[in-house]
Protein backbone atom coordinates (compact mmCIF):
# COMPACT_ATOMS: atom_id res chain seq x y z
CA UNK A 1 0.00 0.00 0.00
CA UNK A 2 1.59 3.25 -1.17
CA UNK A 3 0.89 6.85 -0.14
CA UNK A 4 2.20 10.08 -1.64
CA UNK A 5 3.41 13.07 0.37
CA UNK A 6 0.37 15.02 -0.87
CA UNK A 7 -2.01 12.30 0.36
CA UNK A 8 -0.35 12.14 3.78
CA UNK A 9 -0.37 15.91 4.10
CA UNK A 10 -4.08 15.89 3.30
CA UNK A 11 -4.76 13.38 6.08
CA UNK A 12 -2.69 15.36 8.59
CA UNK A 13 -3.58 18.84 7.31
CA UNK A 14 0.11 19.49 6.85
CA UNK A 15 2.30 21.36 4.37
CA UNK A 16 4.59 19.56 1.90
CA UNK A 17 8.12 20.91 1.57
CA UNK A 18 9.67 19.07 -1.35
CA UNK A 19 8.22 16.58 -3.82
CA UNK A 20 4.44 16.16 -3.30
CA UNK A 21 4.51 13.01 -5.46
CA UNK A 22 7.14 11.25 -3.35
CA UNK A 23 5.81 7.80 -2.43
CA UNK A 24 6.22 5.67 0.70
CA UNK A 25 5.05 2.17 1.52
CA UNK A 26 6.62 1.46 4.92
CA UNK A 27 7.49 3.12 8.25
CA UNK A 28 10.90 3.51 9.87
CA UNK A 29 12.77 5.18 12.70
CA UNK A 30 14.54 8.29 11.46
CA UNK A 31 17.99 6.78 12.09
CA UNK A 32 17.01 3.62 10.20
CA UNK A 33 15.13 5.20 7.29
CA UNK A 34 15.50 3.72 3.82
CA UNK A 35 14.14 4.65 0.40
CA UNK A 36 10.35 4.28 0.35
CA UNK A 37 9.93 4.76 4.09
CA UNK A 38 8.07 7.38 6.13
CA UNK A 39 9.56 8.67 9.37
CA UNK A 40 9.12 11.57 11.80
CA UNK A 41 11.19 14.00 13.84
CA UNK A 42 9.76 15.07 17.20
CA UNK A 43 12.64 14.80 19.67
CA UNK A 44 15.34 17.47 19.12
CA UNK A 45 18.13 15.05 20.05
CA UNK A 46 17.45 13.18 16.80
CA UNK A 47 17.69 16.30 14.63
CA UNK A 48 21.07 15.32 13.18
CA UNK A 49 19.48 12.27 11.54
CA UNK A 50 17.24 14.46 9.36
CA UNK A 51 20.34 15.31 7.30
CA UNK A 52 21.48 11.69 6.86
CA UNK A 53 18.29 9.63 6.80
CA UNK A 54 17.52 7.74 3.62
CA UNK A 55 13.77 7.95 4.30
CA UNK A 56 11.69 9.40 1.49
CA UNK A 57 9.29 11.47 3.65
CA UNK A 58 9.63 12.87 7.17
CA UNK A 59 6.93 14.45 9.33
CA UNK A 60 8.31 17.44 11.27
CA UNK A 61 7.02 20.28 13.45
CA UNK A 62 6.10 23.54 11.72
CA UNK A 63 8.85 25.26 13.68
CA UNK A 64 11.58 23.08 12.15
CA UNK A 65 13.94 24.88 9.77
CA UNK A 66 16.83 22.86 8.30
CA UNK A 67 20.28 24.28 8.88
CA UNK A 68 21.89 22.09 6.21
CA UNK A 69 20.84 20.58 2.88
CA UNK A 70 18.39 17.69 3.11
CA UNK A 71 17.12 15.20 0.55
CA UNK A 72 14.01 14.00 2.39
CA UNK A 73 10.59 15.48 1.57
CA UNK A 74 9.12 17.16 4.63
CA UNK A 75 5.53 17.37 5.82
CA UNK A 76 5.20 20.18 8.36
CA UNK A 77 2.51 19.84 11.04
CA UNK A 78 1.67 21.37 14.42
CA UNK A 79 2.86 18.33 16.41
CA UNK A 80 4.94 15.71 14.62
CA UNK A 81 4.54 13.05 17.30
CA UNK A 82 0.77 13.38 17.50
CA UNK A 83 0.47 13.49 13.71
CA UNK A 84 2.56 10.35 13.32
CA UNK A 85 0.36 8.60 15.88
CA UNK A 86 -2.72 9.77 13.96
CA UNK A 87 -1.23 8.38 10.77
CA UNK A 88 -0.52 5.02 12.42
CA UNK A 89 -4.14 4.84 13.52
CA UNK A 90 -5.34 5.71 10.03
CA UNK A 91 -3.01 3.12 8.47
CA UNK A 92 -4.25 0.48 10.87
CA UNK A 93 -7.85 1.28 9.95
CA UNK A 94 -7.03 1.00 6.26
CA UNK A 95 -5.44 -2.41 6.83
CA UNK A 96 -8.61 -3.60 8.53
CA UNK A 97 -10.94 -2.38 5.77
CA UNK A 98 -11.70 -5.89 4.56
CA UNK A 99 -15.17 -7.05 3.65
CA UNK A 100 -16.83 -10.09 2.19
CA UNK A 101 -17.10 -13.74 3.12
CA UNK A 102 -14.22 -16.02 2.22
CA UNK A 103 -14.57 -19.73 1.58
CA UNK A 104 -14.51 -22.23 3.08
CA UNK A 105 -16.46 -20.85 6.03
CA UNK A 106 -19.67 -21.82 7.82
CA UNK A 107 -22.59 -19.54 8.67
CA UNK A 108 -25.27 -21.49 10.54
CA UNK A 109 -29.02 -20.96 10.42
CA UNK A 110 -30.54 -17.95 12.13
CA UNK A 111 -27.43 -15.76 11.80
CA UNK A 112 -27.92 -12.06 11.09
CA UNK A 113 -25.13 -9.62 10.30
CA UNK A 114 -24.81 -5.98 9.29
CA UNK A 115 -23.01 -4.18 6.49
CA UNK A 116 -19.30 -4.42 5.64
CA UNK A 117 -18.70 -7.66 7.52
CA UNK A 118 -15.49 -9.54 6.82
CA UNK A 119 -15.43 -13.28 7.51
CA UNK A 120 -12.12 -14.98 6.84
CA UNK A 121 -11.68 -18.49 5.55
CA UNK A 122 -12.15 -21.48 7.88
CA UNK A 123 -14.38 -19.53 10.27
CA UNK A 124 -17.46 -21.00 11.94
CA UNK A 125 -20.49 -18.95 13.00
CA UNK A 126 -22.98 -20.84 15.20
CA UNK A 127 -26.75 -20.73 15.25
CA UNK A 128 -28.73 -17.57 16.00
CA UNK A 129 -25.69 -15.31 16.19
CA UNK A 130 -26.29 -11.56 15.81
CA UNK A 131 -23.44 -9.48 14.35
CA UNK A 132 -23.45 -5.69 13.93
CA UNK A 133 -21.99 -3.46 11.22
CA UNK A 134 -18.34 -3.34 10.16
CA UNK A 135 -17.30 -6.45 12.10
CA UNK A 136 -14.07 -8.16 11.02
CA UNK A 137 -13.58 -11.84 11.84
CA UNK A 138 -10.23 -13.15 10.69
CA UNK A 139 -9.50 -16.74 9.55
CA UNK A 140 -9.78 -19.79 11.82
CA UNK A 141 -12.07 -18.08 14.32
CA UNK A 142 -15.07 -19.64 16.09
CA UNK A 143 -18.26 -17.88 17.19
CA UNK A 144 -20.61 -20.13 19.20
CA UNK A 145 -24.40 -20.30 19.24
CA UNK A 146 -26.51 -17.35 20.43
CA UNK A 147 -23.61 -14.90 20.60
CA UNK A 148 -24.37 -11.19 20.20
CA UNK A 149 -21.71 -8.87 18.73
CA UNK A 150 -22.04 -5.08 18.35
CA UNK A 151 -20.65 -2.75 15.69
CA UNK A 152 -17.00 -2.19 14.71
CA UNK A 153 -15.55 -5.23 16.46
CA UNK A 154 -12.39 -7.02 15.32
CA UNK A 155 -11.60 -10.69 15.97
CA UNK A 156 -8.09 -11.56 14.87
CA UNK A 157 -7.14 -15.02 13.64
CA UNK A 158 -7.87 -17.92 15.94
CA UNK A 159 -10.24 -16.23 18.41
CA UNK A 160 -12.80 -18.47 20.15
CA UNK A 161 -16.07 -17.01 21.44
CA UNK A 162 -18.21 -19.58 23.26
CA UNK A 163 -22.00 -19.64 23.19
CA UNK A 164 -24.23 -17.03 24.85
CA UNK A 165 -21.47 -14.39 25.04
CA UNK A 166 -22.63 -10.76 24.68
CA UNK A 167 -20.13 -8.28 23.17
CA UNK A 168 -20.65 -4.51 22.80
CA UNK A 169 -19.37 -2.05 20.21
CA UNK A 170 -15.78 -1.21 19.24
CA UNK A 171 -14.16 -4.24 20.86
CA UNK A 172 -10.93 -5.92 19.75
CA UNK A 173 -9.86 -9.51 20.44
CA UNK A 174 -6.35 -10.59 19.56
CA UNK A 175 -5.29 -14.02 18.34
CA UNK A 176 -5.74 -16.93 20.70
CA UNK A 177 -8.25 -15.14 22.95
CA UNK A 178 -10.90 -17.43 24.41
CA UNK A 179 -14.10 -15.93 25.78
CA UNK A 180 -16.71 -17.99 27.63
CA UNK A 181 -14.85 -21.21 28.40
CA UNK A 182 -16.02 -23.09 31.51
CA UNK A 183 -15.14 -21.71 34.90
CA UNK A 184 -12.95 -23.90 37.13
CA UNK A 185 -15.73 -25.47 39.18
CA UNK A 186 -15.31 -28.94 40.70
CA UNK A 187 -16.93 -30.35 43.87
CA UNK A 188 -14.82 -32.79 45.96
CA UNK A 189 -16.47 -36.18 46.53
CA UNK A 190 -16.17 -38.57 49.47
CA UNK A 191 -14.07 -41.00 47.41
CA UNK A 192 -11.46 -38.29 46.68
CA UNK A 193 -12.60 -37.57 43.15
CA UNK A 194 -14.01 -34.30 41.82
CA UNK A 195 -17.37 -33.80 40.16
CA UNK A 196 -17.68 -31.00 37.65
CA UNK A 197 -20.12 -28.22 38.53
CA UNK A 198 -21.97 -27.15 35.36
CA UNK A 199 -21.09 -23.63 34.25
CA UNK A 200 -24.32 -22.32 32.78
CA UNK A 201 -23.74 -18.54 32.94
CA UNK A 202 -22.16 -16.38 30.26
CA UNK A 203 -19.71 -13.54 29.63
CA UNK A 204 -20.76 -9.92 29.03
CA UNK A 205 -18.22 -7.56 27.46
CA UNK A 206 -19.24 -3.91 27.19
CA UNK A 207 -18.13 -1.27 24.66
CA UNK A 208 -14.55 -0.23 23.83
CA UNK A 209 -12.83 -3.25 25.37
CA UNK A 210 -9.55 -4.62 24.02
CA UNK A 211 -8.31 -8.07 25.01
CA UNK A 212 -4.77 -9.26 24.23
CA UNK A 213 -3.53 -12.48 22.70
CA UNK A 214 -4.07 -15.78 24.55
CA UNK A 215 -6.15 -14.22 27.32
CA UNK A 216 -9.04 -16.27 28.68
CA UNK A 217 -12.29 -15.06 30.23
CA UNK A 218 -14.39 -17.84 31.80
CA UNK A 219 -18.16 -17.99 31.75
CA UNK A 220 -20.01 -17.66 35.05
CA UNK A 221 -21.30 -20.60 37.02
CA UNK A 222 -24.58 -18.66 37.28
CA UNK A 223 -25.17 -15.11 36.08
CA UNK A 224 -22.36 -13.43 34.15
CA UNK A 225 -18.66 -12.70 34.14
CA UNK A 226 -18.58 -8.97 33.28
CA UNK A 227 -15.91 -6.86 31.59
CA UNK A 228 -17.07 -3.25 31.80
CA UNK A 229 -16.70 -0.45 29.26
CA UNK A 230 -13.20 0.66 28.32
CA UNK A 231 -11.29 -2.18 30.00
CA UNK A 232 -7.91 -3.10 28.45
CA UNK A 233 -6.50 -6.56 29.12
CA UNK A 234 -2.95 -7.51 28.10
CA UNK A 235 -1.79 -10.88 26.77
CA UNK A 236 -1.92 -14.10 28.82
CA UNK A 237 -4.41 -13.03 31.50
CA UNK A 238 -6.81 -15.43 33.24
CA UNK A 239 -10.20 -14.05 34.30
CA UNK A 240 -12.17 -16.66 36.23
CA UNK A 241 -15.92 -17.28 36.55
CA UNK A 242 -18.18 -14.53 37.91
CA UNK A 243 -15.37 -11.94 38.02
CA UNK A 244 -16.35 -8.33 37.36
CA UNK A 245 -13.82 -5.74 36.11
CA UNK A 246 -14.87 -2.09 36.34
CA UNK A 247 -14.78 0.61 33.66
CA UNK A 248 -11.46 1.74 32.22
CA UNK A 249 -9.36 -0.61 34.34
CA UNK A 250 -6.11 -1.75 32.70
CA UNK A 251 -4.37 -5.04 33.55
CA UNK A 252 -0.90 -6.13 32.40
CA UNK A 253 0.19 -9.58 31.26
CA UNK A 254 0.15 -12.84 33.21
CA UNK A 255 -2.27 -11.63 35.85
CA UNK A 256 -4.67 -14.22 37.29
CA UNK A 257 -8.03 -13.30 38.84
CA UNK A 258 -9.80 -16.01 40.85
CA UNK A 259 -13.53 -16.53 40.81
CA UNK A 260 -16.12 -13.98 41.97
CA UNK A 261 -13.55 -11.23 42.59
CA UNK A 262 -14.83 -7.71 41.89
CA UNK A 263 -12.37 -5.07 40.63
CA UNK A 264 -13.40 -1.42 40.53
CA UNK A 265 -13.09 1.19 37.82
CA UNK A 266 -9.99 3.12 36.73
CA UNK A 267 -7.63 0.64 38.38
CA UNK A 268 -4.07 0.04 37.14
CA UNK A 269 -2.77 -3.50 37.70
CA UNK A 270 0.78 -4.58 36.90
CA UNK A 271 1.96 -7.86 35.40
CA UNK A 272 1.89 -11.21 37.22
CA UNK A 273 -0.51 -10.05 39.92
CA UNK A 274 -2.50 -12.83 41.59
CA UNK A 275 -5.97 -12.25 43.05
CA UNK A 276 -7.59 -14.58 45.56
CA UNK A 277 -11.25 -15.33 45.01
CA UNK A 278 -14.29 -13.60 46.50
CA UNK A 279 -12.55 -10.30 47.28
CA UNK A 280 -13.44 -6.72 46.35
CA UNK A 281 -11.00 -4.15 44.98
CA UNK A 282 -12.15 -0.52 45.04
CA UNK A 283 -11.92 2.19 42.38
CA UNK A 284 -8.67 3.91 41.36
CA UNK A 285 -6.51 1.23 42.97
CA UNK A 286 -2.91 0.73 41.78
CA UNK A 287 -1.24 -2.65 42.22
CA UNK A 288 2.46 -3.10 41.52
CA UNK A 289 3.70 -6.07 39.47
CA UNK A 290 4.02 -9.53 41.05
CA UNK A 291 1.78 -8.66 44.00
CA UNK A 292 -0.53 -11.13 45.69
CA UNK A 293 -3.96 -9.76 46.60
CA UNK A 294 -5.53 -11.81 49.37
CA UNK A 295 -7.95 -9.31 50.95
CA UNK A 296 -10.24 -6.44 50.02
CA UNK A 297 -8.67 -3.13 48.94
CA UNK A 298 -10.32 0.24 49.51
CA UNK A 299 -10.65 3.00 46.90
CA UNK A 300 -7.37 4.64 45.92
CA UNK A 301 -5.00 2.20 47.64
CA UNK A 302 -1.53 1.67 46.15
CA UNK A 303 -0.05 -1.69 47.13
CA UNK A 304 2.83 -4.06 46.47
CA UNK A 305 4.12 -7.37 47.79
CA UNK A 306 2.81 -10.82 48.63
CA UNK A 307 0.59 -10.55 50.53
CA UNK A 308 0.27 -6.99 49.27
CA UNK A 309 0.35 -3.98 51.58
CA UNK A 310 0.82 -0.21 51.30
CA UNK A 311 3.38 0.64 48.62
CA UNK A 312 5.25 3.21 50.74
CA UNK A 313 5.56 0.74 53.63
CA UNK A 314 6.69 -1.94 51.19
CA UNK A 315 9.46 0.30 49.84
CA UNK A 316 10.69 1.07 53.38
CA UNK A 317 10.51 -2.61 54.35
CA UNK A 318 12.47 -3.61 51.27
CA UNK A 319 15.34 -1.36 52.32
CA UNK A 320 15.46 -3.20 55.66
CA UNK A 321 15.18 -6.55 53.91
CA UNK A 322 18.21 -5.78 51.73
CA UNK A 323 20.15 -4.88 54.88
CA UNK A 324 18.97 -7.96 56.78
CA UNK A 325 22.36 -9.81 56.72
CA UNK A 326 24.10 -6.72 58.15
CA UNK A 327 21.35 -6.27 60.74
CA UNK A 328 21.74 -9.91 61.83
CA UNK A 329 25.53 -9.54 62.07
CA UNK A 330 25.15 -6.36 64.13
CA UNK A 331 22.67 -8.12 66.38
CA UNK A 332 25.02 -11.09 66.90
CA UNK A 333 27.91 -8.76 67.70
CA UNK A 334 25.71 -6.83 70.16
CA UNK A 335 24.60 -10.07 71.79
CA UNK A 336 28.23 -11.22 72.14
CA UNK A 337 29.21 -7.89 73.70
CA UNK A 338 26.32 -8.07 76.21
CA UNK A 339 27.23 -11.64 77.15
CA UNK A 340 30.86 -10.62 77.73
CA UNK A 341 29.73 -7.71 79.91
CA UNK A 342 27.55 -10.03 82.01
CA UNK A 343 30.43 -12.46 82.53
TrEMBL record:
One GO term of the biological process aspect: lipid A biosynthetic process
Report the CDD domains cross-referenced here: LbH_LpxD (cd03352)
Looking at the keywords, is Glycoprotein present?
Answer: no
Where are the active-site residues found? 241 (proton acceptor)
Highest taxon above the source species: Bacteria
Q: Which InterPro entries match?
A: Hexapep, LpxD, Trimer_LpxA-like_sf, UDP_GlcNAc_AcTrfase_non-rep
Describe which pathway this protein belongs to, using the record's wording.
Answer: Bacterial outer membrane biogenesis; LPS lipid A biosynthesis
Name the catalysed reactions.
a UDP-3-O-[(3R)-3-hydroxyacyl]-alpha-D-glucosamine + a (3R)-hydroxyacyl-[ACP] = a UDP-2-N,3-O-bis[(3R)-3-hydroxyacyl]-alpha-D-glucosamine + holo-[ACP] + H(+)
Give the E.C. number(s).
2.3.1.191
* Role according to the record: Catalyzes the N-acylation of UDP-3-O-acylglucosamine using 3-hydroxyacyl-ACP as the acyl donor. Is involved in the biosynthesis of lipid A, a phosphorylated glycolipid that anchors the lipopolysaccharide to the outer membrane of the cell.
Q: Which family does it belong to?
A: Belongs to the transferase hexapeptide repeat family. LpxD subfamily.
Q: What is this protein called?
A: UDP-3-O-acylglucosamine N-acyltransferase
Can you name the source organism? Flavobacterium cucumis
